[in-house]
Design a protein that fits this description.
heterodimer; A: mainly alpha; ABC transporter involved in vitamin B12 uptake, BtuC; 12 helices; globular; B: alpha/beta; Rossmann fold; 3-stranded antiparallel β-sheet; 11 helices; 20% strand
Chain lengths: 275, 285
């Protein structure tokens, strides 16, 4: 049976899910654009997966897994950021190892945690339909934090993203800003975890920005378009998952990926038409 | 010393009789524990226009980066206006190789050149001051790319991108312009125009550029040096046998092309095969 949009969003959990989708899209669209233009998709993936270690430790010791994920995410942002600054192109392997260590710690502690563990799966794969009021407040704070960070430091962020060495010669705080950018990415990863889970978070972070950057040539415009795309993808993904009775996070990501491939083909045919 | 270099030194002296703007004594530098540069001695004075040649992988770019404070000094002394590179580099206009700047980066020409006006330290983004706006416009027009200001940087040709990066360096209002392979991905017509621009700029500021292409720079710069792990520089325009020995070990292709305005010492080489293979090794670095 097909329900109308009005019926679907008359449920409170669907309203919360929709709101969560909007808030997470704002944070992901803005910070995701920085991730894409800085080519630190790999590091962001590492931060997301390493956060699982925090989920495991927190559940074992009986405190909020979100706080555990946050702590691990920030620590791994710092560690991976410093590694990247130090080793540059050779940092890949080291970051991959940290990524694995975080996940392994999570798996061990979760297997040691007694009792019913099914809800821990929600951190891996998301549970947008179970988003709480507290989660929503976290998302509001993160979205505001991300917007403030980018608005206040836009010019410096642009300079270090475009040409780190020139920025260094101009005596800009390249290292500090880069680490700060990763810490905020870490924060975004943790709130986006509620929507699509740690494993798929990287897709939500990068796909809207990647699509937007195919068609627009100004970082601010790309951020705005990425936010808009994220909101639309979350909305239609949610709707589709409800109708088909499938896992929301996975449906959102598959929809995003479909739009990404479609956009890629469109872009290719457009540039061919120009020639 | 030739007459030409004598008269040039006289000109430099009349500009500034005093200290060198760059002074390097017994410098060793490189990455991790591996020195790329060994025992470098070099002095540069205001008004100079120096071209440094040498094979790829010979350390030219590293030398530039040490002067800019991007690569640390391992041993020896390096002073820029009598200070450490980090203290002095806000007076240096750095023009990196364009292949390094991300070609896919979504940014307008104006925003690239505006980076030259970003004040040092931790600053909040703010409205562009009228002084900075003027400096950006002046830099764009000096580099001949004012008409491209609204264009997207990644849609430009190699020569245009190079000019935009020169404009970005000029926007910092530097006293010394440092260019890394400015003609590496530029066609020959644009190359000629680029050197015209640099000669013009040299009337007001000093220029240090490196290139692997001796032919391209030899007719344009005031003095030539050579870097290949070690350095040969005598503040003169002549390409000496010493430089060729250090740089290429084999002058055959130079002779084949002919060298206008240049004196080549007679050059006998017994182990050409060996030295050529060394050059190839350097290239692959």
């Amino acid at each position: 049976m097909i329900s109308t949009i009005g019926q679907v969003f008359s449920y409170e959990f669907m309203q919360n899910a929709l709101l969560a989708g909007v808030l997470v899209s704002i944070a992901c669209g803005v910070i995701g654009t920085l991730v894409v233009i800085n080519r630190i998709v790999g590091i962001s993936g590492g931060i997301a997966h390493a956060a699982y270690g925090g989920v495991g430790i927190a559940s074992y010791f009986g405190f909020d897994p979100v706080l555990g994920a946050l702590a691990f995410s920030l620590v791994s942002s710092l560690a991976m950021g410093l590694t990247h600054r130090k080793l540059k192109d050779r940092s890949d392997t080291m970051i991959g190892v940290m990524w694995a260590v975080g996940m392994a710690i999570g798996i061990i502690f979760i297997s040691l945690t007694p009792g019913y563990r099914a809800n821990l799966m929600s951190y891996l794969f998301g549970s947008i339909l179970a988003v709480s009021k507290t989660d929503i407040w976290w998302m509001v704070a993160t979205a505001i934090g991300v917007i403030l960070f980018v608005v206040l430091f836009y010019r410096m962020l642009l300079a270090i993203s475009f040409d780190e060495e020139f920025a260094t010669v101009r005596n800009l705080p390249v290292g500090t800003l880069f680490i700060l950018m990763l810490l905020i990415t870490g924060l975004t990863v943790v709130v986006a975890m509620r929507v699509v889970g740690l494993i798929l978070v990287i897709a939500l972070l990068t796909i809207p920005a990647a699509i937007a950057s195919m068609f627009f040539k100004d970082v601010r415009v790309i951020m705005l378009v990425a936010v808009g795309l994220g909101i639309l993808l979350n909305f239609f993904g949610l709707l589709l998952s409800f109708q088909l009775n499938l896992q929301a996070g996975a449906v959102i990501i598959l929809l995003a990926a479909a739009v990404y491939f479609g956009a890629f083909i469109l872009k290719m045919s457009l540039s061919k038409a120009k020639l | 010393m030739t007459l030409e270099t004598l008269s040039m030194n006289a000109k430099n002296k009349s500009l500034v009789p005093s200290d060198p703007i760059i002074s390097i004594k017994g410098l060793w530098a490189g990455y991790d524990a591996h020195p790329v540069l060994e025992d470098i001695h070099f002095e540069m004075f205001q008004g100079d226009y120096i071209g440094l040649i040498g094979p790829n992988g010979g350390g030219k770019t590293t030398l530039i980066k040490v002067i800019l404070g991007l690569v640390p000094v391992m041993r020896g002394e390096l002073k820029v206006w009598g200070k450490s590179p980090a203290e002095a580099r806000d007076r240096l206009g750095y023009v990196p190789q364009i292949s390094r700047s991300d070609k896919d980066f979504p940014i307008s020409v104006w925003d690239v050149v505006r980076m030259g006006r970003q004040a040092p330290g931790f600053r909040l983004s703010s409205r562009l001051s009228s002084k900075s706006k003027q400096a950006i416009e002046k830099a764009l027009s000096q580099a001949g790319v004012l008409n491209l200001a609204k264009r997207s940087f990644n849609q430009l040709s190699g020569g245009q991108r190079q000019r935009v990066l020169i404009a970005r360096a000029l926007a910092t209002e530097p006293d010394l312009l440092i260019l890394d392979e400015p003609t590496a991905s530029v066609d020959s017509q644009s190359t000629a125009k680029l050197y015209e621009l640099l000669a013009e700029l040299n009337q007001h500021l000093s220029i240090l550029l490196v290139s692997h292409d001796l032919m391209a720079i030899s007719t344009h710069v005031k003095t030539i040096g050579c870097v290949n792990r070690r350095m040969v520089y005598h503040n003169q325009k002549m390409v000496t046998k010493e430089m060729l020995d250090l740089s290429y070990d084999c002058p055959v292709d130079l002779l084949a092309h002919g060298l206008p305005h240049r004196v080549l010492h007679e050059h006998h080489h017994e182990d050409n095969a060996n030295s050529l293979s060394q050059y190839e090794e350097g290239k692959n670095d």
